[in-house]
Every structure is written in C-alpha cells, then in structure tokens.
Amino acid sequence: MAFEHYLIVRDSDLYEYKGLTKSVLMTIAMLIIDEPEEDERGKLKGKPDPDAGWCVAGQEYLAAALGMSPDAVSSIVAILKKDGWLEVVSFRNRYGHVHNKYTIAAPKLDQIKARAFKKDEHGRFIRASQPKKARNLRRGKDGYFLASGSREGSTSGLPAGDPPKKGSLRQGAVIRGFQRVPSAGFDRKSSRSRKTGRFAGHLR
Prior knowledge:
- By secondary structure, this protein is an alpha+beta fold.
- It has a domain at 2-122: Winged helix-like DNA-binding domain superfamily/Winged helix DNA-binding domain (Arc Repressor Mutant, subunit A, Orthogonal Bundle).
- The chain is built from five helices and eight strands; from the N terminus they run ααααββαββββββ.
- The chain has helices at residues 2-10, 21-30, 59-66, 70-82, 106-114; strands at 87-92, 98-103, 118-119, 125-126, 174-175, 178-179, 186-187, 192-193.
- It has a two-stranded antiparallel sheet. A two-stranded antiparallel ribbon has the order 3-4.
C-alpha cells in the first residue's frame, strides 16, 4: 500500500516547480506502514501494527533522508496540511515528547490519482511550462531601482542598470542615505571631493 501511495504522488502534477514540497509528500507516502498480509486462509500474517496506515517517521528523519533542515520539513508539512493533502495527528510519547504521524486520506489519494501526468505520442510526460523568474527589479520614475517596500518615484533605491553586487557601491548610488562621491573628483589623500568639498559618505 505504501509503495502504491508513493507512485500515485510521484506520477501526479502536484506542486510542480515548488521545490521539495512534492518530495516530502512522496517520502511520507512511501513510509506509511502497511497492514499485515493475509495468508491463503484469510488470516493475518503477524500481529497488526497499531500505527498501520500512518507514517510515524520524525521530521529529523525526513530531513536527513531528503537533505533538508528539520525547520524546512516542518514548514512544508504545514503547507501540505493546510492544502488538505496530508492529515497530521500530534501525540505525546511516554516521555512526554510531542510527535506527529501522517497519512493521506483515501479521498485525497483519489484526487491526487486523478491528477496523474498525461503522456504524449512519444511516451513523455506532458508538463506545464516552468514560470519565468523576474530578472530585473522595478524602477521608479527617476530611473532608480525600487527597494523592497519603496513607493513609485522614491529615490531610496539604486540607480538604473544591473543591480550592484553585495558589498559593492556604484558611482552615484544612493544607499541608506549615503552618496558615493564620483571617482573623478575624489582626492584620496584628503578623502575630500575637489568638486563639492564634501567628505566621502557625507549625509545628503
């Protein structure tokens, strides 16, 4: 049953281009504990597990299996729970520590199964196009890049052109109220601008 759950999630279009979200759900589905098999007389082979139908793996184990941090796994589990694909039950063990167990309800599994990838005439999966990422920051009316939270027309951004790398300043860039003095009029010995008479980094 667990491997069947895994295949259903793997072959679906769930969380396309959403990082490791689908991988976390696939891993949980694969770790769901199976019910014991029946013999030819219809009797169960072995004792039934009280957690059958659930994945009881800890988030640290899931994080190690996927090369993630436990906090990242916790965030993704919260997303899966919020979206309704994962049922999460919290409980305390005999030592009082809180643990979670997970399962994919049968109706949700049917919905995931209905979202299986379609194939073209060559047998390849038909997938949606990957969303394009914005390459340029927004610019204000003055030609400056708008910083996060800045309004249109604000001069608190960066000058037009390619965004400067971290730790570097562009000539004329306005950053946190400081203005870099143009190099052509900068006296290195006195650290004073010959054109303006102001020290480099002087507040505007």
